[in-house]
Amino acid sequence: LGFCCTLRASYLPLAMGTMTRCSFLVFLVGMLVSILVSVSIAKSAGASRPHILVVIADDYGWNDIGYHSDELPTPILNSLASSGVKLNNYYVQPLCTPSRASFMTGRYPIRYGLQHFVIQPPFPAGLFLNETTMPQRMRESGYATHAIGKWHLGFFEWEYTPTYRGFDSYLGYWTGGESYYNHVPDGSNYVGYDFHNGTKDFISGNGTYSSTWFADEAERVVRNYAKDTSTAKKPLFMYLAMQTCHEPLVRPPQPNLDRCAHLQDENRKIFCTMTSNLDDTVGAVVKSFQTAGIWEDTLLVFSTDNGAHPQLGGSNWPLRGGKGTLFEGGVRGAAFVAGAGVPKALAGTINNELMHITDWFPTLLGVAGANSSNTFPLDGKDQWKTITQKNASSPREEILLNIDLETASIRVGHMKLVVNNQSYDGWWYPPVNSTDNKKDGIHVPVTDAARAIKMDDGAEVCLFNVTADPNETRNLAKENLDQVKELRTRIEEYRSGRHGGFVHPWMPPSDPKADPTLHGGMWVPWKSLNAKRF
């Protein structure tokens, strides 16, 4: 517990120490005004506020959704996207934990040290408790908040788990990746069961494909809402974080093999059955909203958490790189918005304005009439006008894609700088016609025109105009060294904390006390004094 307490106590100076006293006071005044305005909006909006359904797909690539490519049929997602707005210039973080933290807080992962790697099951790590989360603000404003699926933001103490971070209910798993049927996580030397209903172990989930339970839980929540005849019932905020299509590759029950019969590569074929299951699950959840008579009053947001893993059946083609990289295949995400508040005149349109996953925090809280401030300054921008008004410009000019131990990337306007990307460089053709069953499909190595150049300090850099060259085929760094210097300076300003604080990447080592064999075979919040099976 000492480590955790020290961390919490030291966070404020780390995050805020680089702000001037004056700028911090201005921020506090602005936050107070925001609170008063949002309360007024919430009161006037009342029952007219929309239900909000957020669906996060896992390791879902640019080329894996049907409206980008007909290779993997996703008719339900295609239909929903065609009724709304497709986000074509939308960015996420390169890995699971950082993206989910960004969504929940509206702040870059550099603000709380979660920019490096992901939280493994035995790591005593989590999203700092002094970060305000979206469901907290939603609940404060009168929403009923429900989380279903993957968490991956820490569970070593109860306070880090979903029902302590703003959700009224939760059904799912706390770790990052696990078996789809028996719910045992991978990625560590310890073996244990991880499926939970609130704070209780959900033993009856064993043996059933995860998305079956997720759909059932969503339907239960909506059904209970429909049964509530009181005049004071609350609008719904549902966060549905799907397991699909994270590894391991596992066929779901009733795998829709007919949709995938054209594929010859075995990994891609299994991945196809998983995307089909994702599509069907979203369809089942939408149907439950329709049956309850509330779909017309529901706003839907669909987003991936990061790019696909091209060695495990996913595809980001024609984008470069994949999950874990700072190239477009790792950070440009498939996403769309549909439903309540989206004008019918915009149905099926493609929005090319710059957006980032942190933007959902102020955007959705604004739609909900809720207080859209965090404990600390936001990185996210309210994009509601950008999404719902034709030809509206994004309030964004730049996105800090990440600053890690050695790697970094930033996009400003059309230009994107990548510093020291270290993994999965190049492109992967979708292995539709591959018969050799290679896990990495057909790899296209980096060409000389796209290769990074080495700077005097040893850093390897790439500079791309990602508007003209979204596939990052031509490195412009050599002929634009002044611009490279300018963008590297901007990154260093972020690293110094000048633009809202910086916390050095931290991931504590595995704690042997987390071993599930010490806790009845379960993954539990082992650092809490009351860590036990319920």
* Helix count from the secondary structure assignment: 12
Spatial order of strands in the largest sheet: 7-6-5-4-8-1-9-10-2-11
The profile of the biggest β sheet is: 10 strands, mixed
Low-confidence stretches: 1-27, 33-47, 433-440
Beta-strand percentage? 15-25%
Q: What is the general shape?
A: globular
Please give the number of β-strands.
19
Average the pLDDT over all residues and give the rounded result. Answer: 89
N-end to C-end Cα span: 22 Å
Class from secondary-structure proportions: alpha/beta
Radius of gyration: 22 Å
Percent helix among the residues? 25-40%
Brief synopsis:
The chain has 534 residues and is α/β, with parallel strands linked by helices. 27% of the residues lie in helices and 15% in strands. A hairpin with a 2-residue loop joins β6 (196-197) and β7.
How does this structure look, described?
By secondary structure, the protein is of the alpha/beta class. The protein has a 10-stranded mixed β-sheet with strand order 7-6-5-4-8-1-9-10-2-11, with helices on both faces. The protein has a 5-stranded antiparallel β-sheet with strand order 13-14-15-19-18, with helices on one face. The protein is 27% helix and 15% strand. The protein contains 12 helices and 19 strands. The two termini are 22 Å apart. It has helices at residues 2-16, 21-45, 75-82, 96-105, 134-140, 210-227, 257-260, 266-291, 328-331, 360-367, 384-388, 481-496, and strands spanning 51-57, 85-87, 90-91, 144-150, 169-173, 196-197, 200-201, 236-241, 298-304, 335-339, 349-351, 355-356, 398-403, 408-412, 415-419, 427-429, 442-444, 453-454, 460-465. The model is unreliable at 1-27, 33-47 and 433-440 (pLDDT under 50). The radius of gyration is 22 Å and the shape is globular.
